[in-house]
Amino acid sequence: MLSEFQNALGSNAVLSDPNDMQPYLREWRGLFEGKALAVVRPSTTQQVSDAVKLACAHGLKIIPQGGNTGLVGGQMANDAENHIILSTDRLNAIRNLDSDGNSITAEAGVVLERIQQAASDADRFFPLSLGSQGSCQIGGNISSNAGGTGVLAYGNTRDLVLGLEVVLADGRIWNGLRALRKNNTGYDLKQLFIGAEGTLGLVTATTLKLFPKPKGRQVSFMGFDSPHAALATLNIAQGLAGSNLTGFELIPRIAIEFTSRHLEGARDPLETEHPWYAVVEISSGRSDAEAESLMAEAFEQAYEAGHINDAVLASSVAQQNAFWHLRHGISESQKPEGGSIKHDVSVPVSKMPDFILEVSTAVKSEIPGCRPVPFGHLGDGNIHFNVSQPIGADRAEYMAQWDQINAVVYDIVGAYGGSISAEHGIGRLKAKSMPDIKSDVELDMMRQVKKALDPDGVFNPGALLPPE
């Protein structure tokens, strides 16, 4: 069977030695232990099609995997006899960049940061930005409908996709790589595969929106007494800057302490400590001066209203990057602090401050000494509500309480009309919770779509949809 894959894809495209397979079976948070018969690495869309047809002929299940940066286990195989991982890391060509049409066509294995750089080199801007952008791949971003820090101004990945190329469960290739902004000719089929976590088909290429490159940018680091004060400042900044407000990231004091201890080059930008902080970014299509003027006015209005305690405006590009480095390093800096029970949740923006305070109180009551670390995208209502273990606690004993803490957090999310997955997806980690958050009608609709496109359950079994 493996020799058939080697004949179709090339001998170096099929990995079956445990040592060679290990990077594809190790999930960076250590929550899932991967198992697979082999890892196949096609380099063309036709080879993906050939691999899918071979897998179907041998009754194998396919686990699509991009950069292996997923946070809910959707990229992990768990069957050493019946599962193969289909890695997109060799589908790594940028096929076209149309600067006049503001679009770029890239294969699924192109690393996000490379797309950002290609756009910048063409005096254009691709706004999807997240902590793993140096290793995550655009196919995985699409399949998980990745969010990130640019959602406030530009939307989720779903809003950035113009077209897709997809290999279906029977090996057929659908070429939907259209760079059209308007195409009102029936069902928008690409939307089925965005956020589907590789359960309906395998994305092999995409055409994405680009934007004019901002001519100016200003980033500030602000200190607050409460998330309520941060939200009031967000509203002031949005009123002044509108869509030019391209970032507003909430950070608790404890995250500053973690990053200062464990993240190289990180330090508190403000002279005095504050309970809450925010990284705020304003961009301009005209000049740095305009961005700086808007930021200064936002600060003055919020300070005069009593919302801001202190702030510093970046005096250089290096300082701007340092502020963002601190924000992007929060998750990594939690690792040395021990076990962390993580949640990627969203509630209506106006309810976010009350939600954060209520959940923080609830989890500390459930596990005395635990350390809530709620941070993230205040402007779009998405908070990463992570809970670090008590100081000195046993990591394994603490992590065994994952479901217990989940129940506390998810109950409050539900009461606020929120979602238990804002941008990371469902994967294997949260699939068991789907019956609790989706109605029978919703689950039936999702299963009907799955049966229509993948009747034999070839793609990513165990991810997203719970067993019937």
What is the helix content?
25-40%
Runs in which pLDDT lies below 50 for 5 or more consecutive residues are none
Structural class: alpha+beta
Q: What overall geometry do the principal axes of the alpha carbons give?
A: globular
Total strand segments: 19
Mean pLDDT: 96
Radius of gyration: 23 Å
Major sheet: size, sense and barrel closure? 8 strands, antiparallel
Kindly estimate the percentage of residues that lie in beta strands according to DSSP.
15-25%
Q: Distance between the terminal alpha carbons, to the nearest Å?
A: 31 Å
Number of helices: 17
Put the structure in a nutshell:
With 468 residues, this protein is an alpha+beta fold. It has 17 helices and 19 strands.
Structure commentary:
The chain has 468 residues and is of the alpha+beta class. The chain has 17 helices and 19 strands. The strands form 4 sheets. Strands 12, 13, 14, 15, 16, 17, 18 and 19 form an 8-stranded antiparallel beta sheet that branches. A 5-stranded antiparallel beta sheet has the order 5-6-10-8-9. Strand 5 and strand 6 form a beta hairpin. Helix 1 (2-9) runs antiparallel to helix 3 and helix 8 (227-241) packs across helix 10 (288-304). The protein is globular, with a radius of gyration of 23 Å. The mean pLDDT is 96.
Produce the secondary structure layout.
Blueprint: H1 2-9, E1 14-15, H2 18-25, E2 35-40, H3 45-57, E3 61-65, E4 78-87, E5 94-98, E6 103-107, H4 112-121, E7 124-125, H5 138-143, H6 151-154, E8 161-167, E9 173-176, H7 190-193, E10 202-209, E11 211-212, E12 216-224, H8 227-241, E13 245-252, H9 253-262, E14 276-284, H10 288-304, E15 310-313, H11 317-328, H12 330-334, E16 340-341, E17 344-346, H13 352-366, E18 371-377, E19 382-388, H14 395-399, H15 402-415, H16 434-437, H17 440-453
Parallel strand pairs: 2-4, 3-4
Antiparallel strand pairs: 1-2, 5-6, 6-10, 7-11, 8-9, 8-10, 12-14, 12-15, 13-14, 13-18, 16-19, 17-19, 18-19
Helix pairs in contact: 1-3, 8-10, 13-15
